[in-house]
Amino acid sequence: MDVPHLTEDEMAEIKKDVLTRMRHYLCNTIRAERHLDYLRSRRILTRDDAEEISCRTTQTKRAAMLLDILAENPRGLDVLIDSIREMRSQNFIITKITDEVQKAKNEKIESLRVGAASSSSESNQSSPSSTIDLPTAFSNNSTLLFHPDGERSPSTSDIAGSLNLPSLQKGGDSPSTAGVSFSTASSSLPRPGEPGAPPLPDEMMMEDFRRRLKYFFMNPCEKYKARGRKPWKLMLQILKIAIITTQLMSFGLSNEMMVTFKEENLMTFRQLFLKGHTARHLGSYALYTKTDVYDHIYYVINRYINLQNLTVGNLAFERVNGERIPLLVCQEFYRNSSIYPGNETFGIDPHIEKDCISIYPVQSLNNSSLVTHINFSIDFQRLLSVNIYLNLKTINLQTVRRHELPDCYNFHIMIMFDNRAHSGRMKVYVSNDVTFYECRDWNMEGTSGKINYPLLLFDSVVILACFTSLILCTRSVINGILLQFEFNTFFHTYYYKRVTWSDRMEFVNGWYILIIVSDMLTVVGSALKIGIQTKFLTNYDVCSILLGTATMLVWVGVIRYLGFFKKYNILILTLRAAFPNVVRFCCCAAMIYLGYCFCGWIVLGPYHDKFRTFDKVTECLFSLINGDDMFATFLKVKGKSNMVWLFSRLYLYSFISLFIYMVLSLFIVLITDTYETIKQDKMPVSQLQAFIAKCRDQPESGRYQIEEDSVSCCFG
């Protein structure tokens, strides 16, 4: 008797039944969003279907809705397989589906055969030997492979067109002949035990590997319970927090005294050399007449000559080969110019020339004597600036209170009369370039030498501790990477699955990376600090940046140890889970923010001090987002042209409303939504976590004990 032929409706029913059977498996393995475009191109999904699927909150819900839609379309399962084949990364899913469809198809054919046999009297009288038991033939002659996770893997070459697979045939063929189609379908993968097939891992090896993975992800306390390994890295990090913070505080006091000394001397120079200068003139000191310019220049020269009779500080003139370095008065001006505003004509050579005169601090001169003595005149039409250069020396005695050897300072002062705008307002600036170094000859009571050896020893201990921590953490990161490769090879070999990138990154401990960066900064910063203390180096700024950043990272790393407690760990989990969404959101918000920055800079820059430069615009708008100085920002545009005033109001109101009421609120929602998801323990379980979870051995069970070398035992 011929095998019953399946109609299209019966095949559609079989495919729908397969989707129902495999629903749980497919929801966990299929990424719905990867197939939406292909399914839409084949007219299986509409645009509304794709949008509705994408709106689902979790991966499982998106896959479930996709399967519901595919089950209602007779071609849905076929097109899904085509989409999976196009991706070329999940062919094991095709294999699984093929097995289930073939199984369901054989069951359907068998049920039809049984129905046909019971309704035919001739079939009831036929010889049993002429009938093939279909399930037996399928069981005995199929070459479907069974893998450790229960997946069967026939070849996918016989399903290139659709899932209408050839059914078993009865007739004159022997049972072995009836299974030929299945043998062909499985030809791409060898049977277990055949040449080329991976050996099946035994249960003991599987459990050992799970135990190794679980031990790797334990915290130091659990590792101590599991193998009795003392948490040396944990104790070393706690020690580092104490000594690095102490080191930073010591360096911070020295740096503060140095910076304060420089700033106070700059203030002293302004008071000494700027005529009529007060604190309220800071940043706005300017001259408006030619007489004022000459008077101020002569005033600077006279004050410099009589400096040692005027100042209360320890200021002195710099000398070279026993001679005082002179004061320099330099003019910068255009080479030639003839400007006639009344006739609206001008002629100018834009090349800039510089002319300097030297004045030695010998004797005091009044203004009239200076005019004849130095023969100094200014052509204000061509003038760009007048720069006066002074060189003074002093000693910072503040460090004596901390039993540190004082440094000698060399101040290179420039007083600039700026006329580059030619607006009738000549601005005056005082700048100060400082170098400091070890004094040539010194004698300090109670000091045995110029080097503070206890402090130098302490810095050496910090370097040694950080270098040890750097080696231990680097070793742990390398071990994690090696274990990650081993896990990836294991899954690919025995499960025919690729480990996701997120699972791979679980093996790279970000806290160790943080500690490594902190240790490197601390080692370099401590070396610079030793150089500063021994007077070989003078770069306080670089040293302070390195040590400050390192200390910040060390204290941030404390969060890792709080994460060992479940209630504290929620902060770390929230930050890690929300970070990708926050970055994407910030990128989008940054586009709007930059648009407002450029617009404000171009339009409001000429009328508002806070929008005068691009960096000021970004700082001003960021302050507005945080609710700072709003009224003053609105007020400073008052009195301008009506059009600019109206635009400024629209600009500021729209920016504040958009960013405070919408962007900032959405940003907070991203964080709170992630927090609620983690709090309710709804985070999806990864392949790695699911694999490790099958290991039920507790740390104190004694199953984690292994033979270790002495180094691993002490510093694991």
Overview of the molecule:
The protein is 56% helix and 11% strand. It is built from 28 helices and nine strands. The strands form two sheets. Strands 1, 2, 5, 6, 7, 8 and 9 form a seven-stranded antiparallel β-sheet that branches. The protein has a two-stranded antiparallel ribbon with strand order 3-4. Helix 1 crosses helix 7. The two termini are 71 Å apart. The C terminus is likely disordered.
Helix and strand topology:
Elements lengths: L7 H14 L1 H7 L6 H6 L5 H8 L4 H13 L4 H12 L3 H28 L2 H4 L9 H8 L33 H4 L1 H6 L17 H14 L3 H8 L4 H42 L12 E2 L2 H16 L1 H4 L5 E2 L1 E2 L2 E2 L2 E14 L4 E15 L7 H8 L8 E14 L10 E12 L7 E13 L14 H42 L6 H5 L4 H24 L6 H17 L1 H5 L3 H39 L9 H12 L4 H6 L6 H38 L7 H7 L16 H6 L1
Helix pairs in contact: 1-7, 2-5, 14-18, 14-21, 18-20, 20-21, 23-24, 23-26
